[in-house]
Amino acid sequence: MATSGSASAEWAALTALASPATNLETLTNSLAKIDWPRLLALAEEHGVTQLLAVTAQKLPSEIVPVESREQIAELQRTQAFFTLRMSAELFRLTERFAAQKIAMLVLKGPALAVQAYGDAAMRNYGDLDLLVRDRDIARATQLMMDAGYQAHIPLSAITAEKIPGQYMFRQPDAKLLVEIHNDRTMRYYPRALPIEQIFARHARVVIDGREIPAPCVEDHLVIICVHGAKHFWERLMWIADVAALIARQTELDWELAGRSAQSIGADTMLHGGLLLATEVLHAPVPATVLGGAEKDATARRMVEQVLQWLPAAGEAPPGLLQRAMYRTRMGGGGLPGAKYLLRLLFSPTEEDWDTNAQESRGFLEVLKRPFRLARKHGSGKE
């Protein structure tokens, strides 16, 4: 169930509830005639049920129907149990990586939830994302298999130096999913990820009394802006993460964040994330920083595209031409953007590999990729 457009009362209420600048008095007045079942469904589609739940608890009891309060409480319990389970698995894997002396950082998920919201249970996520160096990926894969996971990318493909979109691992019985990324799988970054700098600047995030390695706040801000841009910013949760991180991390080094984005050619993606966080959720971006983002005409056009499809939560995906224009803008527009689009078009992932091949057939896989993407997205239904 998607909202009919950005003017709907439920969409306006959801953005107000998800904003770090929420005014409870104003919000209370605007929620008087809200369709709460529709609002809850919309919050689930956009991945912000925890944000809605926390704010709803502060509202007068007569504003939120009893049935909706019960549903919200159940969603909170479910998320709390899931977070405990995933945190326990994260601690187990962290110990295994440390024992094997494989450096690892936790991306997004519970680490970002703590940095942005102060609580690992405040952010919806379905898997654990880890970052390792490319030279360690074979050892990390073996480690995950020894830990009881099934590797989606076999060691033979790693030996053949094939580069997937990510290295995925499943534990079917426990229904656990882990994705490992390295400096070569981050294909949506216009330039190579400066992984040594990211590891050197890393932070320690405390989850349930345990320290977990994660990117520093400035690097994480850039990472989530690239991630949101990659997914067309189709869900409010990705914008909410940016807004919450900025609001909570009042000592954020904006100069470092700018250098981090510039080093990978992601200036426009960072600017787009800041503009969306400000326009949709009123994030407290410093005036000088926001002024720089507003001067980025390519980022502004990208944001205008996003605002057209954002309320629908991915149910009204852009067509081929819109996607191509958007990807070009992600890369900075003009010639750099065109080069970026072409690289994405002709950089095969595991979906393009010949599964029967014993060795890499790179040229054929490169040629096959654009046709697969056209079939996948040509209908506009994905």
Short description:
With 382 residues, the protein is of the alpha+beta class.
How are the SSEs placed, and which strands pair?
Layout lengths: L8 H10 L5 H7 L5 H10 L3 H8 L9 H34 L5 E3 L1 H9 L10 E4 L5 H10 L3 E2 L3 H5 L7 E5 L4 E6 L13 H6 L2 E5 L2 E5 L2 H14 L5 H13 L5 H10 L3 H15 L5 H8 L2 H13 L10 H11 L3 H12 L16 H16 L5
Detailed description of the structure:
Helices cover 55% and strands 8% of the residues. The chain is α+β, with helices and mostly antiparallel strands. The protein has a five-stranded mixed sheet with strand order 1-2-5-4-3, with helices on one face. Helix 4 packs across helix 5, helix 10 (217-230) packs antiparallel against helix 11 (236-248) and helix 10 (217-230) crosses helix 13. The two termini are 16 Å apart.
Helix content: 55-70%
> Outline, from the CA principal axes?
globular
Please give the alpha-carbon distance between the first and last residues: 16 Å
Q: Radius of gyration from the CA trace?
A: 21 Å
> What does the oligomeric state look like here?
single chain
Biggest β-sheet description: 5 strands, mixed
Sequence of secondary-structure elements: HHHHHEHEHEHEEHEEHHHHHHHHH
Strand order of the largest sheet: 1-2-5-4-3
Which terms summarize this structure?
382 residues, alpha+beta, 18 helices, 7 strands, 55% helix, disordered N terminus
